[in-house]
Amino acid sequence: MNVTRRSRAGERGQAAVEFALTIVLVFFILVAVIELLMFVHTYNALADSAKEGVRYAIVHGNDNASPSGPACPCAAIDGSAGTGVVKTFAQFAFHDTSAMTVTVTYPDTTNPPANQPPNRVRVVVSYPYQPFFGLSWPSVTVYAAAEGRIMY
Predict the structure, then answer these.
(1) Distances in Å between the alpha carbon of 22 and those of 26, 28, 30, 33, 36?
(2) pTM for this structure?
(3) Domains of the chain by residue range
(4) Which of 117 and 24 is assigned the larger pLDDT?
(5) What angle (nearest 5°) sits at the alpha carbon of residue 96, between those of residues 106 and 133?
(6) Which residue, among 71, 64, 68, has the nearest Cα to 121 in the 3D structure?
Protein backbone atom coordinates (compact mmCIF):
# COMPACT_ATOMS: atom_id res chain seq x y z
CA MET A 1 0.00 0.00 0.00
CA ASN A 2 2.88 2.30 0.64
CA VAL A 3 3.88 2.10 -3.05
CA THR A 4 0.35 3.07 -4.17
CA ARG A 5 0.29 6.20 -2.02
CA ARG A 6 3.61 7.39 -3.41
CA SER A 7 2.34 6.97 -7.01
CA ARG A 8 -0.81 8.99 -6.33
CA ALA A 9 1.12 11.75 -4.61
CA GLY A 10 3.29 12.20 -7.71
CA GLU A 11 0.21 12.44 -9.98
CA ARG A 12 -1.67 15.14 -8.07
CA GLY A 13 -0.56 18.05 -10.27
CA GLN A 14 -0.94 16.13 -13.53
CA ALA A 15 -4.55 17.15 -14.18
CA ALA A 16 -3.81 20.82 -13.56
CA VAL A 17 -0.85 20.78 -15.96
CA GLU A 18 -2.87 18.98 -18.66
CA PHE A 19 -5.74 21.45 -18.24
CA ALA A 20 -3.39 24.44 -18.52
CA LEU A 21 -1.80 23.09 -21.71
CA THR A 22 -5.15 22.18 -23.24
CA ILE A 23 -6.90 25.46 -22.41
CA VAL A 24 -4.13 27.47 -24.08
CA LEU A 25 -4.54 25.43 -27.27
CA VAL A 26 -8.34 25.68 -27.18
CA PHE A 27 -8.18 29.44 -26.59
CA PHE A 28 -5.79 29.91 -29.53
CA ILE A 29 -8.06 27.87 -31.82
CA LEU A 30 -11.12 29.85 -30.67
CA VAL A 31 -9.41 33.19 -31.39
CA ALA A 32 -8.26 31.94 -34.81
CA VAL A 33 -11.78 30.78 -35.72
CA ILE A 34 -13.30 34.12 -34.69
CA GLU A 35 -10.65 35.97 -36.70
CA LEU A 36 -11.36 33.80 -39.75
CA LEU A 37 -15.10 34.48 -39.40
CA MET A 38 -14.46 38.22 -39.28
CA PHE A 39 -12.27 37.98 -42.39
CA VAL A 40 -14.96 36.05 -44.28
CA HIS A 41 -17.55 38.61 -43.17
CA THR A 42 -15.36 41.41 -44.54
CA TYR A 43 -14.92 39.62 -47.88
CA ASN A 44 -18.66 38.94 -48.17
CA ALA A 45 -19.49 42.57 -47.39
CA LEU A 46 -17.03 43.78 -50.05
CA ALA A 47 -18.30 41.30 -52.64
CA ASP A 48 -21.91 42.31 -51.98
CA SER A 49 -20.93 46.00 -52.13
CA ALA A 50 -19.25 45.49 -55.52
CA LYS A 51 -22.39 43.72 -56.78
CA GLU A 52 -24.52 46.65 -55.59
CA GLY A 53 -22.28 49.07 -57.49
CA VAL A 54 -22.52 47.00 -60.67
CA ARG A 55 -26.28 46.69 -60.27
CA TYR A 56 -26.56 50.48 -59.90
CA ALA A 57 -24.36 51.13 -62.95
CA ILE A 58 -26.23 48.56 -65.04
CA VAL A 59 -29.64 50.03 -64.32
CA HIS A 60 -28.64 53.66 -64.72
CA GLY A 61 -26.29 53.15 -67.67
CA ASN A 62 -25.50 56.39 -69.46
CA ASP A 63 -27.64 58.38 -67.00
CA ASN A 64 -25.35 57.75 -64.02
CA ALA A 65 -24.79 61.40 -63.12
CA SER A 66 -28.50 62.14 -62.74
CA PRO A 67 -30.25 59.00 -61.53
CA SER A 68 -33.97 58.57 -61.88
CA GLY A 69 -36.23 56.35 -59.87
CA PRO A 70 -36.97 56.18 -56.17
CA ALA A 71 -35.29 58.80 -54.03
CA CYS A 72 -32.44 57.14 -52.20
CA PRO A 73 -29.53 58.75 -50.36
CA CYS A 74 -27.29 55.97 -51.63
CA ALA A 75 -27.92 57.04 -55.22
CA ALA A 76 -25.40 59.88 -54.88
CA ILE A 77 -22.17 58.87 -56.57
CA ASP A 78 -18.61 60.00 -55.99
CA GLY A 79 -17.43 60.68 -59.52
CA SER A 80 -17.71 57.21 -61.05
CA ALA A 81 -20.86 55.22 -61.47
CA GLY A 82 -21.72 53.20 -58.40
CA THR A 83 -18.91 54.39 -56.11
CA GLY A 84 -21.22 56.01 -53.56
CA VAL A 85 -23.56 53.03 -53.65
CA VAL A 86 -20.67 50.67 -52.92
CA LYS A 87 -19.46 52.65 -49.93
CA THR A 88 -22.96 53.14 -48.55
CA PHE A 89 -23.65 49.41 -48.78
CA ALA A 90 -20.35 48.61 -47.04
CA GLN A 91 -21.18 51.02 -44.20
CA PHE A 92 -24.24 48.93 -43.37
CA ALA A 93 -21.87 46.00 -42.74
CA PHE A 94 -20.00 48.11 -40.13
CA HIS A 95 -16.89 48.76 -42.24
CA ASP A 96 -14.84 51.95 -42.33
CA THR A 97 -15.23 53.19 -45.89
CA SER A 98 -12.57 55.90 -45.62
CA ALA A 99 -9.87 53.30 -46.29
CA MET A 100 -11.89 51.58 -49.03
CA THR A 101 -10.89 52.01 -52.66
CA VAL A 102 -13.54 51.58 -55.35
CA THR A 103 -12.49 51.38 -58.99
CA VAL A 104 -15.11 51.46 -61.74
CA THR A 105 -13.96 50.51 -65.23
CA TYR A 106 -15.62 49.82 -68.55
CA PRO A 107 -13.75 46.96 -70.27
CA ASP A 108 -15.48 47.58 -73.61
CA THR A 109 -14.14 50.99 -74.64
CA THR A 110 -15.48 50.97 -78.19
CA ASN A 111 -18.25 53.06 -79.73
CA PRO A 112 -20.78 53.91 -78.29
CA PRO A 113 -19.26 55.63 -75.24
CA ALA A 114 -18.15 53.34 -72.44
CA ASN A 115 -21.11 53.91 -70.11
CA GLN A 116 -23.79 53.03 -72.67
CA PRO A 117 -25.34 49.68 -73.63
CA PRO A 118 -24.26 46.99 -74.49
CA ASN A 119 -20.86 47.64 -72.85
CA ARG A 120 -19.75 46.01 -69.62
CA VAL A 121 -19.01 47.70 -66.28
CA ARG A 122 -16.59 46.28 -63.70
CA VAL A 123 -16.38 47.36 -60.05
CA VAL A 124 -13.32 46.40 -57.99
CA VAL A 125 -13.28 47.08 -54.26
CA SER A 126 -10.13 46.89 -52.15
CA TYR A 127 -10.02 47.23 -48.39
CA PRO A 128 -7.11 46.89 -45.93
CA TYR A 129 -8.36 44.31 -43.44
CA GLN A 130 -7.24 44.96 -39.89
CA PRO A 131 -7.30 41.87 -37.66
CA PHE A 132 -10.11 42.00 -35.10
CA PHE A 133 -7.95 41.05 -32.12
CA GLY A 134 -4.78 42.82 -33.25
CA LEU A 135 -2.33 40.28 -31.81
CA SER A 136 0.36 41.59 -34.20
CA TRP A 137 -1.11 39.61 -37.09
CA PRO A 138 -0.38 41.16 -40.50
CA SER A 139 -2.80 43.48 -42.26
CA VAL A 140 -4.13 42.03 -45.51
CA THR A 141 -5.71 43.83 -48.45
CA VAL A 142 -8.98 42.19 -49.43
CA TYR A 143 -10.17 42.47 -53.03
CA ALA A 144 -13.64 41.82 -54.42
CA ALA A 145 -14.91 42.41 -57.94
CA ALA A 146 -18.17 42.24 -59.87
CA GLU A 147 -18.97 42.74 -63.53
CA GLY A 148 -22.14 43.17 -65.57
CA ARG A 149 -23.50 44.47 -68.88
CA ILE A 150 -25.21 47.86 -69.07
CA MET A 151 -28.85 47.42 -69.99
CA TYR A 152 -30.34 50.88 -70.52
Answers:
(1) 6, 10, 12, 17, 21
(2) 0.74
(3) 2-149
(4) 24
(5) 125
(6) 64
